[in-house]
Amino acid sequence: MIKIGSYNTLTILRDREPGLFLGDTEDNEVLLPNRYVPEDFEIGDTIDVFVYLDNEERPVATTDKPYITVGDFALLRCNQVNKYGAFLDWGMVKQLFCPFKEQAFKMREGQWYLVHCYLDEESQRLVASSKTNRFLDNKELTVSMFDEVDIIISHPSEIGMNVIVNKKHAGLIYKDTIFQDLNIGDTFKGIVKKVRHNNKLDIVIGQIGYRNIEPNAQKILQELEDNSGYLEFTDKSSPEDIKEAFQMSKKSFKKAIGSLYKDRAIEIKPDGIYLK
Second label for 77, Cα 20 to 30 Å away, from 34, 95, 253, 273? Predict the structure, then answer.
């Protein structure tokens, strides 16, 4: 099946006056207009193309690369607003339509907006929506604590910055963990710092590699989180106290602390351990 709004690898079937006709394994065809035809090709070659709808709502292929594809999020510029909605620049000849009902706030010409692209089931047209939260779901998470994730800065809140996690989930970066300028649409690597009640995700920016931290280190990090970032334990703490607090030996405790210190996740001071 040829997917509208996505990249497709198709076979060159025949060369005609308007361009090349491409097909998939299910005998579906689409035109690649002359302006996109490569200089060298042979019938039977495969070619990667993006497929969308032209001004007459017909599927058409292109070798141009759009700024956004179906199921994706991107920051796009509003080029025009009329009585039907807004039209966004997404790198294609035909602009991407965002109807008024899909606008979180009324769009204005020349402004930039974070939007989600989807295929409208009724009209079979590609549509943009700035109501990005409705395309996110935290009911069934695909991420866990300490996972490294891809994040997109979504919109600010009173307590921090809302983010899109792996293009699937909603997350939040708290103000006290933000140490750089963040703009809507910016993309970063992040870490799932905590999974809260109702699957709310706390995110921090960085690539610390928490997946590789041993379970004992994860347990200590969790204790630090639950105790405002401080634990009154040092090398001089007794094995009994360590076992009671963390259910591990002093040797395992020191190994875990060493791992966290090496990854710059903690600070070790004379009075205890501090979360960085």
Answer: 34
Cα 44 from Cα 233, distance rounded (Å): 69
What residue has token string 């198709």? 10
Task: Please give the model's pTM, rounded to 2 decimal places.
Answer: 0.74
- Please give the CATH architecture assigned to the domain spanning 148-205: Beta Barrel (2.40)
> How far is Cα 97 from Cα 128, in angstroms, rounded to an integer?
6
Tens of pLDDT, residue by residue over 19-50, are 999 999 999 999 999 999 999 999 999 999 99
- Using one digit for the tens of pLDDT, what is the confidence trace for 199-241? 999 998 875 544 445 678 888 888 898 898 999 998 788 999 9
Strand order across the beta sheet in which 266-269 lies: 230-231, 272-275, 266-269
